[in-house]
């Protein structure tokens, strides 16, 4: 009897030791340091708030973010209003993520100034914020990751100056995204800056990144200014609308420069409906933004600004760029 009692006590102690060891292994710091887990052992959850989820550009951005999340073992959830101009909805989405306690928030702000109260709320709650694609005057951001839009706009202006042979006094239409958007301000200003020595007559209209609005605006510009020599659109959605407006007015021979390098924009270039395109790297923006948020959660250093670059796409290199984009989207 005494032997049996000692055996049962030994067996119980042995089981408790095994269970304690297993528990320590599952919840200890070793697993967390090499995975996308937080201190409670569950996956990090990052909220990604984009200007909209409806355009090809943002779908490519999401593809990059998803691939990074899969590789790093974190969860990402995407949010965005129906249209880029609906920045109040975007601000509310950021505020909701603060309340729900996201581990990090990645934002592509539509309105740099309007988003600041929501970003400050995140900072007060200790939630890291990464700005992607569009910057804002938010000192506490972990990093800005995206195209240096002023430089990219300058590439478009240099192309127009050198390849389209614009002369002093020529009229150039700029169809841009919403006024007050730093992204579209920078692209517009960069383009105009590159042509400042030519005394160009710029006709600038806000189409709010909407394709249909760009069609109407392009037609109206041509009605009032049939001698337009070139068109620059600060996003591919508007460039595609401008292309339709040029076609409707029988002016498809007017050079058109788009911006973003989306599949539809590149197809239009490939089919002769666009002259050039300033291509960003939205896949890399999405990927690097998630990577930066992850590194921050792990206590690693992240560069304050990460320029993902831009390049001029023409008929010479458009097929190569289409192949790259199709690969990102799994086509």
| Shape by Cα distribution | elongated
> Treating each run of at least 4 consecutive H or I residues as one helix, how many helices?
12
Largest sheet, strands/sense/barrel: 6 strands, parallel
Q: For the largest sheet, list the strands in their spatial order.
A: 2-1-3-4-5-11
Roughly how much helix do the residues carry, as a percent range?
Answer: 40-55%
User: Total strand count, please?
Assistant: 12
Rg over CA atoms, rounded to whole Å, is 25 Å
Instruction: Output mean pLDDT.
Output: 89
Strand content: 15-25%
Please, could you describe this protein's structure?
The protein has 331 residues and is an alpha/beta fold. The chain contains twelve helices and twelve strands. The chain has helices spanning 2-27, 29-33, 56-72, 87-100, 116-124, 149-163, 182-194, 211-224, 236-248, 263-270, 282-297, 318-328; strands spanning 45-49, 75-79, 104-107, 129-132, 143-146, 171-176, 201-206, 228-233, 256-260, 276-279, 305-307, 311-313. A six-stranded parallel β-sheet has the order 2-1-3-4-5-11, with helices on both faces. The protein has a six-stranded mixed β-sheet with strand order 7-6-8-9-10-12, sandwiched between helices. Helix 4 (87-100) packs parallel to helix 5 and helix 10 packs antiparallel against helix 12. It starts with a helix and ends with a helix. The model is unreliable at 1-34 (pLDDT under 50).
Short description:
It is built from twelve helices and twelve strands. It has helices at 2-27, 29-33, 56-72, 87-100, 116-124, 149-163, 182-194, 211-224, 236-248, 263-270, 282-297, 318-328; strands at residues 45-49, 75-79, 104-107, 129-132, 143-146, 171-176, 201-206, 228-233, 256-260, 276-279, 305-307, 311-313.
């Amino acid at each position: 009897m005494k032997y049996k009692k000692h055996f049962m006590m030994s067996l119980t102690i042995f089981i408790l030791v095994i269970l304690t060891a297993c528990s320590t292994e599952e919840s200890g710091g070793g697993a967390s340091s090499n995975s996308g887990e937080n201190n409670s052992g569950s996956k990090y959850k990052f909220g990604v708030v984009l200007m909209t989820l409806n355009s090809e550009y943002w779908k490519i951005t999401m593809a990059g973010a998803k691939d990074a999340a899969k590789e790093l073992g974190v969860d990402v959830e995407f949010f965005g209003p129906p249209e880029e101009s609906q920045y109040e909805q975007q601000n509310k989405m950021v505020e909701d993520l603060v309340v729900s306690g996201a581990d990090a928030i990645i934002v592509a702000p539509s309105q740099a100034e309007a988003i600041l109260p929501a970003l400050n709320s995140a900072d007060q709650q200790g939630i890291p914020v990464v700005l992607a694609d569009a910057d804002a005057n938010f000192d506490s951001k972990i990093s800005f990751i995206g195209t240096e839009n002023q430089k990219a706009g300058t590439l478009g202006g240099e192309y127009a100056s050198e390849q389209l042979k614009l002369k002093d006094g020529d009229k150039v239409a700029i169809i841009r995204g919403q006024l007050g958007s730093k992204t579209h301000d920078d692209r517009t200003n960069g383009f105009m800056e590159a042509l400042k020595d030519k005394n160009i007559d710029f006709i600038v209209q806000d189409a709010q990144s909407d394709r249909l609005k760009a069609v109407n605006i392009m037609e109206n510009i041509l009605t009032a200014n049939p001698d337009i020599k070139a068109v620059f659109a600060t996003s591919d959605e508007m460039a595609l609308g401008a292309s339709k407006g040029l076609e409707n007015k029988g002016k498809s021979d007017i050079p058109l420069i788009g911006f973003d390098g989306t599949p539809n924009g590149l197809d239009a270039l490939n089919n002769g409906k666009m002259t050039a395109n300033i291509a960003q790297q939205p896949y890399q923006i999405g990927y690097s933004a998630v990577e930066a948020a992850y590194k921050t959660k792990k206590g690693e250093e992240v560069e304050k600004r990460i320029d993902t670059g831009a390049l001029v796409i023409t008929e010479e290199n458009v097929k190569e760029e289409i192949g790259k984009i199709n690969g990102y989207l799994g086509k």
